[in-house]
Amino acid sequence: MRIGLITDTHIPWETNVVPTEVFTIFQGVDLILHGGDIYSHSVLDDLERIAPVYAALGDDDYPGEDKRVQERHILKLEGKTIYLTHEGPYNLLSTTGLPLWWRNKISPGNYVDPDIIVAGHEHKVVVEKFNNILYINSGSPTLLHYKKGPGTVGILELNGGEPKVEIIHL
Known about the structure:
By secondary structure, the protein is mainly β. It has one domain: Metallo-dependent phosphatases (Purple Acid Phosphatase, chain A, domain 2). About 10% of the residues lie in helices and about 35% in strands. It has 3 helices and 11 strands, in the order βαβαββββαβββββ. The protein has helices at about 20-25, 40-50, 100-105; strands spanning about 1-5, 30-35, 55, 70, 70-75, 80-85, 115-120, 125-130, 135-140, 150-155, 165-170. Helix 3 (about 100-105) links the parallel strand 6 and strand 7. The longest helix is centred in the first third of the chain and has 7 residues, at about 40-50. It starts with a strand and ends with a strand. The model has no long low-confidence stretch (mean pLDDT about 90).
């Protein structure tokens, strides 16, 4: 299974549309995960022309009627549990595991460590494994490191073995 990863599009604030390179890169993906700060839900409509879309509610997004956008999604795909959220855990390399405040936010009372966390918010690329959890932040296609211009997206491949992540610069 190939999954397109995108976050922090900030459309139409940073640019009017999703950069065209994103659609080329995402051709053939089975699913797209958006890590939040979408701004305009037309972004999700455009991406959904390629594949189904799940999106996290960003701290700059407004809750609405769009079922694709949730505070968090917990997905089971190819034998892996994936948490999709906007704001990921901080202090990733903690020897005590994920912070309790974050665990309670993600799954109050029912928290189980996921295999993969997909998040946004930081506008920087992070692909890191800690405590057997793969953490992925694909950056931003429009505002990487909070600088306007071409940024990054990601491809996550799940094929029953170790997940593979590729970050692609536009």
